[in-house]
Amino acid sequence: MLIAGNWKMNTDLSKARTLAAGVRKAAESAGEVEVLVCPPFISLDAVCQVMRGSAVQVGGQTLYPEDSGAFTGEVSAPMLRSVGCSHVIVGHSERRQLFGETDEDVNTRLLQARLHDLVPILCVGETLQQRKAGNQRTVVEEQLTAALANVDIAEADDLVVAYEPVWAIGTGETASPEQAQAMHAFIRSRLTDRLGQSVGAGVAILYGGSMKPHNADELLSQDDVDGGLIGGASLKASDFGAIINVATGYTA
Ligand code: 13P
């Protein structure tokens, strides 16, 4: 189980430090559950320092697919590594929708993350319109196929995929446990086709979209749900801690 918090564009430096300290404390009883936080770039260094000596891992929310250079405003994989990040989110729907990232952009970012030993958390998910039209599987399959182009199977063993239906993000509406399980099982089947049985079966598939303490159990109890990527509820250490606690019930 992996419980990951995506803080998005929330928390200034001081609030980030306080929240990080709260998460560190809440994660003390996480046991086998892996805990990750993804703060804004500006707070990554400080949050890595707060987490030092604990098992809580830290990740970036995106990256630029070059090592360095004239790319004003961007942050590279080596920079993320240099402050202590282990993971990076790629292809979040907000990056796709608000910042125009294409499937090809997601692929180059994922490859760049791999090149620098960052674990990519690849986000996929359909919009409400696409689900209403019954196209959710086609959309997710296309996103997966494009994002994994040229990815070496040997390099994919620690890949993380997050299924985040766009209609459930920040809306308070979650996928039902049945909808989540059905899509996760579909993603699993596509991954085993692409990466082979043993690697595909080992990929952690997280659910994201209004996961809260009160609905975490029904989602995390599903066979192919291996954790959560949590937005709003990751901004309160007590809520995030409550979700971590639920996840501890599902570790082997
Ligand atoms: P919410 O939990 O706020 O719906 O956000 C989910 C998300 O986008 C995590 O990346």
CATH fold descriptor:
TIM Barrel
Determine the fraction of residues in helical runs and give it as a percent range: 40-55%
Distance between the termini: 9 Å
Mean pLDDT rating: 96
Tally the helices: what do you get? 11
Task: Supply Rg.
Answer: 17 Å
Helix-strand string: EHEHEHEHHEHHEHHEHEH
CATH class: Alpha Beta
Number of domains: 1
| Structural classification | alpha/beta
**Could you give the order of strands across the largest sheet?**
1-2-3-4-5-6-7-8
CATH superfamily: Aldolase class I
Low-confidence stretches: none
CATH architectural grouping: Alpha-Beta Barrel
Strand content: 5-15%
Major sheet characteristics: 8 strands, parallel, barrel
Q: Quick one: how many beta strands?
A: 8
Could you tell me which ligands this complex binds, including any ions or cofactors?
1,3-dihydroxyacetonephosphate
Shape: globular
How would you characterize the overall build of this protein?
The protein has 252 residues and is of the alpha/beta class. It has a single domain (2-248), classed as Aldolase class I (TIM Barrel). Helices cover 44% and strands 15% of the residues. The protein is built from eleven helices and eight strands. The protein has helices at residues 13-26, 41-51, 77-83, 93-99, 103-115, 128-132, 136-147, 177-195, 197-202, 216-220, 237-248, and strands at 2-6, 34-38, 57-60, 87-90, 119-124, 160-163, 204-208, 227-230. Helix 10 links the parallel strand 7 (204-208) and strand 8 (227-230). The mean pLDDT is 96. 1,3-dihydroxyacetonephosphate binds at residues 6, 92, 164, 169-170, 208-211, 229-233.
